[in-house]
Design a protein that fits this description.
By secondary structure, the chain is mainly alpha-helical. It is about 70% helix and about 5% strand. The chain has a 3-stranded mixed sheet.
């Protein structure tokens, strides 16, 4: 069965997807009206926890044995801007990750020292609502417009809770890159709608299944591909479109904004959901060039990371480097490649969020993210150090972490599609990238205390911090030792996409 033959929906009388999108907005509205600072944290945890329970309920109700989209909802709004939502296993996995990271952010903020205020929780819940909408939408125009809203909300978080006096310059750079990405994504979206109208007697549509059913004319496929690809690659972020990230990581919010922006690979999801099914010929033609940039980006970012003396900038280059591995898997264009890329995206999301969380807890004590100001922290923050190390090992793809199966699938697909040379280069790049994370761990946690710093001055881990570190450790190790359900969840939805590219993996 090819992608366009997949049943477009399995109708459901339960508007679960609408509830998942509206509950965070309702929580944001209640926070605005209530504004009881003494109970704000408890309410935030309750609302975020309820959203996670709904996401888990969606997972339990979802039938992974069918390729049909499930829980479909549709409403006519303004012409082609229709509300059309449904989920497959990939969507369910990203919805679970969104709900989990949002809960962790709500818990982490006060632990890190951010005062629980109404504007902070309103922004976090609004971002969560936007993420839920992105991961269940089947309308490309809707996806693009909500992406713009989410970018604006993340920018607000960067501006309002930045940890550097240079935040204004960071915000300008962030909006320049992200605004360009949204503009390119919108241009590609409108071109697709125009192409559909040209092939359908003037009927405009941005619905995924309408677009996939009407092949794009060959002369326009490459143009549309590059507009959509570059628009999403800025968010991923893929080399050389990553220029906004190091400065944002260094001068922006220590963990909240990066976790919500980088922990959820919206760019990777958008490519899989909308680009690959709609312009397959252009994807197949340009995939070697994209993979070439990804390989260069792995080594480029890894080498730059080794030169950093700032932990946050180092983590930013880690994101760029390891994103290259995900992109190589994605553009290997096979069933197992898509499986590995999705699992790797989720793994990196969890791991990167964990690394930023732990760095934030270190910053709370050292008041600095310079590696020269760190050292000897493991004696005082052993659990924080263990969480940092496990997250780094997950990115490396070590056995026992969720990255192990993912990296194996990606490299297996890459060697089949591109041969041994490129795959070995990508694997070596991953080793180099892993090396700088281990070096950062050694220097910050195992190295000697910097001169003039007394060991008694370092505050030990609090119970709340132990809770945050314990939660992320449990999820990382649990997903690592019990990854089979997640691979089974995304297996059937990605089979049709694999067949679209001539792959017949079981």
């Amino acid at each position: 069965m090819t992608f366009t033959e997949i049943p477009w929906s399995t109708e459901s009388g339960l508007p679960l997807l609408a509830v998942l999108q509206l509950l965070p907005l309702l929580a944001a509205a209640l926070v605005w009206v209530w504004r009881d600072a003494s109970r704000l944290l408890q309410f935030g945890i309750l609302a975020a926890g309820l959203e996670l329970l709904l996401a888990v309920w969606l997972y339990l109700l979802y039938d992974p044995t069918t390729v049909a989209m499930q829980f479909a909802e549709r409403a006519v709004l303004l012409g082609p801007l229709t509300y059309h939502a449904a989920v497959d296993g990939v969507s369910v996995l990203f919805v679970l990750l969104s709900a989990l990271l949002s809960l962790l952010v709500v818990v982490y903020g006060p632990v890190r020292g951010l005062k629980p205020t109404a504007p902070l929780f309103m922004a976090v819940f609004s971002v969560e609502a936007a993420l839920m909408s992105l991961f269940v939408s089947l309308n490309l125009l809707w996806f693009t417009l909500v992406s713009a809203i989410q970018v604006g909300l993340i920018g607000y978080l960067l501006w309002r809770w930045a940890t550097s006096p240079d935040s204004d310059g960071v915000l300008v750079s962030f909006y320049q890159f992200m605004g360009t990405g949204v503009a390119l994504l919108l241009a590609g979206t409108l071109m697709l709608g125009w192409q559909h109208a040209d092939a359908s007697s003037g009927l405009w549509s941005f619905d995924l299944f309408d677009l996939a059913a009407k092949p794009v004319a060959a002369p326009h496929q490459s143009v549309i591909f590059f507009l959509l690809f570059y628009g999403l690659a800025v968010r991923t972020p893929l080399f050389p479109l990553h220029g906004w990230l190091p400065t944002m990581a260094e001068h922006g919010n220590i963990a909240v904004a990066p976790s919500l922006l980088l922990g959820l690979k919206v760019g990777i999801y958008g490519l899989l959901r909308f680009v690959f099914p709609v312009v397959p010929e252009a994807v197949a033609y340009w995939s070697p060039f994209v993979v070439g940039f990804a390989v260069v980006g792995i080594f480029y970012a890894a080498l730059l990371a080794m030169m950093q003396d700032n932990m946050r900038r180092l983590l930013a280059f880690a994101v760029v480097s390891h994103t290259g591995i995900v992109v190589i898997g994605l553009f290997s264009l096979s069933h197992i490649a898509f499986q590995g890329s999705v699992m790797l995206s989720v793994t990196f999301g969890l791991a990167i969020a964990t690394l930023f969380f732990m760095t934030g807890l270190v910053y709370r004590r050292t008041r600095s993210t310079l590696l020269a100001r760190m050292g000897g922290l493991f004696d005082h923050l052993p659990f924080v150090g263990i969480a940092f190390l496990v997250a780094g090992l997950a990115i490396m793809g070590m056995p026992g972490t969720p990255g192990f199966d993912s990296v194996h699938l990606v490299l297996e697909a890459a060697i089949d599609h591109y041969g041994a040379l490129l795959t070995i280069a990508a694997a070596l790049g991953n080793v180099v990238a892993a090396g700088f994370l281990l070096w950062a761990f050694q220097r910050a946690f195992l190295g000697p205390l910097p001169e003039g710093v007394s060991s008694q001055a370092i505050e030990r881990t609090s119970r709340a911090e132990l809770l945050v570190a314990g939660l992320v450790l449990t999820v990382l190790l649990g997903a690592g030792f019990y990854s089979e359900p997640w691979i089974h969840l995304i297996d059937r939805p990605l089979a049709g996409l694999g067949q679209l590219y001539g792959n017949t993996d079981p």
